[in-house]
Amino acid sequence: MDLRLSPAVLRRLEEVVNESRERFVVDLAARLRKLRTSVQTVLDGDMTQEDMLALVFDESLQIKGMGGTVGYNVLSLIATTLNDFVTGRTELGRIQFEILQLHIDAMYVVIADRIIDNGGILEDQVLSGLRAAVRKFG
User: Fold this and answer.
1) How far does CA 34 lie from the centroid of its chain?
2) Which of these, 48, 92, 125, 127, could form a disulfide with 96 (CB 3.0-4.6 Å)?
3) Cα-trace Rg, the chain
4) 76-to-25, 83, 120 alpha-carbon distances in Å
């Protein structure tokens, strides 16, 4: 039995992966908009930080899992850091609030620039900076 895939099957598999990435990007953009909206809603005084943190926890957990599946590994790493940062929190100080926003902004950049896999040196530096901020102010 020959288990090699034909070039046509390989092309189709690549198409399926690319279609999955596109659906993921659309879904992720909606999730990130939801997170930004919740941040603004807290700033406007129409949502509690506790409710926003619960939303951030859920969304970052979803992004963390989905990102790696479709090749956005650096995105999953940022979502993991964010998820760890908000786990167990019910409120944030000013600096912690800014750290949360930096995570959301970083995920927007990853998607806007279509940074797949583990990214490069710049992405490593951004991730290291986020982790350092979480350690120092978390």
Assistant:
1) 12
2) 92
3) 17
4) 13, 10, 15
CA dihedral 13, 17, 23, 29 (to 10 degrees): -170
pLDDT value for 116: 81
- Asked whether the predicted pLDDT for residue 32 surpasses 90, the reply is yes
Q: 50 near 38, Cβ under 8 Å?
A: no
Rounded-to-10 torsion of CA 110, 31, 29, 97: -50
- Within 10 Å of residue 52's Cβ, how many Cβ atoms? 23
């019910």: which residue's tokens? Answer: 90
pTM, to two decimals? 0.85
Quick check: 116 and 134 in contact, CB under 8 A?
no
The residue behind tokens 């999730």 is 31
Task: Output the pLDDT for position 13.
Answer: 86
Closest CA to 32 of 136, 107, 84: 107
Please give the C-alpha separations between residue 113 and each of 19, 29, 73, 109, 138, in angstroms, as whole numbers. 17, 13, 14, 6, 28
